UniProtKB/TrEMBL annotation:
Species lineage: Eukaryota, Metazoa, Chordata, Craniata, Vertebrata
Major localization class: membrane
Protein name (record): Olfactory receptor 4C16
Organism of derivation: Heterocephalus glaber
Protein's UniProt keywords contain Transmembrane helix: yes
UniProt domain G-protein coupled receptors family 1 profile: residue ranges: 39-142
Topology term for the membrane: Multi-pass membrane protein
InterPro entries in alphabetical order: GPCR_Rhodpsn, GPCR_Rhodpsn_7TM, Olfact_rcpt, Olfactory_Receptors
């Protein structure tokens, strides 16, 4: 007969157990989350509504802001909920979803930053191969 020791949930201790400090942590994380969210949404709205921001750098910046919004939401939401609850328990599947989404959006941000660096490399080091009218590298010249 085998002993079944499968983990189905985790008890998260959080940053503090003091109720007053939990409210301070909640307030600070909420302010930082809203600041990040509003900043990224402002960047997204500015790029989408402006006619002059058509270069590839702004295309990548739009998706970087979108990815950062998703990363902040999947990370901070659980922290905010956890700082309000008395007993902070997370199920195994919820933990795996949060780990996957954090890794996915984190890697997506890194990939976008690499593409932005390649775009700047082509614009600076190979200016004749780069279209300055906002369409990025010219086709067939790389």
């Amino acid at each position: 007969m085998q002993l079944n020791n499968n983990v189905t949930e985790f008890i998260l201790l959080g940053l503090t157990q003091d109720p007053v400090r939990k409210k301070i942590v909640f307030t600070m994380f909420l302010l930082l989350y809203f600041g990040t969210l509003m900043g990224n949404l402002l960047i997204i709205a500015t790029i989408k509504t402006s006619q002059t921001l058509g270069s590839p750098m702004y295309f990548f910046l739009f998706y970087l802001s979108l990815s950062d919004t998703c990363l902040s939401t999947c990370t901070a939401s659980r922290t905010l909920v956890g700082s309000l609850l008395k007993k902070n328990i997370i199920s195994f599947s919820e933990c795996m979803i949060q780990v996957f989404s954090t890794h996915f959006f984190g890697c997506l941000e890194i990939f976008i930053l690499i593409l932005m660096a390649v775009d700047r490399y082509v614009a600076i080091c190979k200016p004749l191969h780069y279209d300055s009218h906002g369409r990025g590298p010219l086709r067939g010249n790389l």
